[in-house]
Amino acid sequence: MKLAFTTLGCPKWDMDTIITKAVEFGYDGVDFRGYLxxxxxxxxxxxxxxxxxxxxxxxxxxxxxxxxxSSVRLFTTSETELNNYLEELKQYGTLCRVFNTPYIRVFGxxxxxxxxxxAIEIVVSNLQKMLKIAEEYQVTLLLETHDDWTNCEYVRDxxxxxxxxxxxxxxxxxxxxxxxxxxxxxxxxxxxxRIKYTHWKDSYIKEDTSRGYQLCLLGEGDIxxxxxxxxxxxxGYEGYYTLEWEKVWCPEIEEPDIAFKQxxxxxxxxxxxxxx
Length: 276
Description:
Layout: E1 2-6, H1 15-25, E2 29-31, H2 51-60, E3 67-73, H3 79-99, E4 103-107, H4 116-137, E5 140-144, H5 152-162, E6 167-172, H6 174-180, H7 184-191, E7 195-200, E8 202-205, E9 213-216, H8 225-234, E10 240-243, H9 256-275
Parallel strand pairs: 1-2, 1-10, 3-4, 4-5, 5-6, 6-7, 7-10
Antiparallel strand pairs: 8-9
Helix pairs in contact: 3-4, 4-5, 5-7
């Protein structure tokens, strides 16, 4: 089992702290979603002028960067916005070459009042341009089960529309179950052969919040995480199990020192329970 965390959960940690804590808590990789308050990390010295130093730090710590989590959205009807996303993909593609990173996470995006079939056609059209960049940089774009593309059938329809080896799925195990009531077995049956990466979080219903649920440490909510882990193991999944601790968006949740250590312990406990 390979463990990672996204930097969404540690917005105040510098690079040395990120690496030190990852090693201390037993992680295999770090997924970058922002760094010290900047989401476009490729604009920062750590990923531009000083990139070789960053690369050496990760190599010395025997840590991977399995994925760069971009802000790219597949659904847009704006030519300007699409061109901005294409440029962002090129920037992340360059980082993937340096760090030998196989994946870039992308969102489907909100479709508003656009009819679903029309939205799928727009996404497929935009993907034709995005996938040329993915092929150029030899990197796979991962569509996350998120926003208006949480339902596995919607994701499947996009997959069928492009049929590319450079396009796959990031299963956020929380969102389909929590927000659309989708059973994990259905998610896997529909998308399993294209799921290359996973995000993990837990929550419980809390109706007086804007989301209708409260994020919490793993095992303290009611997402069937052990069931999901067993399913992935039974199906031969070999990708990362990445904690997406949304500290940037939800400052009230536990600090990363607590959450990152707890996640590693929790997942290892599940793995040991199944083996024994």
